[in-house]
Amino acid sequence: TEKERREKERAKAKAEADELINGGEIKTDKRDVLKVKSENGVIIQGASGLLMRIAKCCNPVPGDLIEGYITKGRGVAIHRSDCQNLKSQENYEQRLIDVEWDDDGSKKEYMAEIDIYGLNRSGLLNDVLQTLSNATKLVSTVNAQPTKDMKFANIHVSFGISNLAQLTTVVDKIKIIPDVYSVKRTNG
C-alpha cells in the first residue's frame, strides 16, 4: 500500500542519513522523501532526528540562500550559499543536503554582523548604536577601533534580526548616518 511504501522510504532515508553523519561516508543520491523542520527554522529534506546548527562562519538568516553541509559526527551545518568557508571544504559539493527556510512567520532571532567605516568624529558610535537600538531588539557585540592616523573609525557590530529584509533595513539606516562611508555584512 501507499502508506507502507512511504514508511519504507522514510526508514531508508533515515538509515542513509545516520550512516552519512555517523559513519562519515559520502553519498550523492539526494532524495526528497520528507521535509523535517528543525527548531532553528530550517527545513531539511530527508530524515528526522538529524542534529542541525547554524554555521557561525557566515551567520545565515531567513532570506539568504542556504546549503546544508553534512559534517563528520556533528550533524548538518547550515551555511549561506556564498560562504567561502563552505566552498573551501574538501569534497564539499558531495556533502551538501537540500535545506530551506521555514516560512512559518516566527519571530526567531538570528545573529548578523556588519562592519562600518566612517569619519572618527565625536558621536559616531553613539549614532550607530541609537540606530541599532531603534531597529533591533538585541545588540550582542560592539567593537570600535580608530585607524592609525585617528582620522577614521572601524566599527564591528553583531546584533539580532529576524530575516534578511530587516538586516537590509538596518544597513540602509546606518548608511545614511552622517560621516559613515561604508557598511558591509561580514561572514562572522
TrEMBL record:
It holds the Pfam family ACT_4. Residues 113-188 form the ACT domain. The keyword Translocase does not apply. Keywords: Kinase, Transferase. GO terms for cellular component: plasma membrane. Gene3D superfamilies: 3.30.70.260. InterPro entries: ACT-like_dom_sf, ACT_dom. One of its GO terms (molecular function) is kinase activity. This is GTP pyrophosphokinase. It comes from Streptococcus agalactiae.
